[in-house]
Design goal:
single chain; 121 residues; alpha+beta; two-stranded antiparallel ribbon; 1 helix
């Protein structure tokens, strides 16, 4: 007997095969390869009996590592803020340069009515 089982959390299709002649157990457990959850499956019907979520992993091993990560995050935030302040200071100069370049291009462009594609037909 073969079937397809879906893990609730990951939505991951897990294929399984059941050997009915060799197996005397009615329920067996399968670990989901995506999320690590334990799935209990009825051998006769191939249906999911229960689902046990995988234990959550700790993000940090100790308090010192967590505090260091928080300090690093604060430094990154400060750096990004300084960059945005500097960009705001230079914004006016940048716009003036862009305007001067566009004005120069407009003066260099030929005068007259621009041609459109359907005017050429």
């Amino acid at each position: 007997m073969a079937g397809l089982l879906l893990c609730k959390r990951a939505g991951y299709g897990l294929q399984f095969r059941i050997e009915m002649a060799k197996s005397k157990e009615k329920i067996f457990e399968v670990a989901c390869p995506d999320c690590g959850a334990m799935l209990r499956i009825d051998a006769e019907t191939g249906l999911l009996v229960s689902h046990t979520s995988a234990p959550r992993k700790r993000m940090f091993e100790d308090l010192e590592t967590a505090a260091k990560a928080m300090r690093d995050q604060d430094e990154r935030k400060e750096s990004i803020f300084k960059q945005s302040v500097e960009a705001e200071r230079n914004k006016e100069d940048l716009f003036e340069k862009k305007f001067a370049e566009a004005l120069r291009k407009a003066k260099d462009a030929p005068e007259g009515k621009p041609l459109r594609e359907f005017d050429l037909d």
